[in-house]
Each structure stands twice: as C-alpha cells, then as structure tokens.
Amino acid sequence: MRHAVTRVRFHFKGDTIYVDHVPTWTCTRCHEPYFDAPVYKRLAAIATHRGKIKKTVSFPLAEYAMALD
After folding, report:
1. Neighbours of 22 (CB within 10 A)
2. Is residue 24 assigned to a domain?
3. For the chain, which has fewer Cβ within 10 Å, the N-terminal or C-terminal residue?
4. Is residue 8, in this structure, part of any structural domain at all?
5. pLDDT at 67 > cutoff 80
6. What is the side-by-side order of every strand in the sheet holding 15-26?
7. Per-residue confidence (pLDDT) for residue 34, from 0 to 100
8. How far is CA 18 from CA 30, 41, 54, 58, 67, in A?
C-alpha cells in the first residue's frame, strides 16, 4: 500500500460520482484505492450533495460484445 492523492470513482446509493484530489491508500499490486473512515464519510457527504457539483466529465462507453472488425 502507498499513500496517494488521486481521482476516484465513488458509488453511493446507486449513483456514481468522480472526485478529484482524494487522499487514498492505493494497493501497489492492483491499484485499488482504499479510504480511511474520515475520507469515506466526506465522500459520502459530497455524494449526498451531488446537486451542488458543477463540473462534469464525459467519456466513450463501449459495449463489451461490440464487433471489433
């Protein structure tokens, strides 16, 4: 595990948000982020007030079964 500050995907009550500059513990093998309890509580509070989030991101979304030829 190593300490890092990164962008994380956070799932909360059926919704997903992305949050920048989150302090995490990141697994050096799989790169999965882990949060200390106060960080998780703050992410949950941010997700609860997601209507106040002003910035959005978009990305391409493919179907796994799509044709590749």
Report:
1. 19
2. yes
3. C
4. yes
5. no
6. 2-12, 15-26, 33-34
7. 95
8. 19, 15, 12, 11, 29
Of the candidates 61, 9, 59, 57, which has an alpha carbon nearest to the alpha carbon of residue 32?
Answer: 9
Read off the pLDDT of residues 1-55 as tens digits, 9 standing for 90 and up.
Answer: 999 999 999 999 998 999 999 999 999 999 999 999 999 999 999 999 999 999 9
Residues 59 and 30 sit within 8 Å (Cβ to Cβ)? no
Total-model pTM = 0.79
Report CA-CA distances (Å) from 38 to 1, 9, 10, 34, 52: 18, 17, 15, 12, 21
How many domains are there within the chain? 1
Structural domain of 12: 2-50
Q: How far separated are the first and last CA of the chain, in Å rounded?
A: 40
| DSSP-derived 3-state class of residue 44 | helix
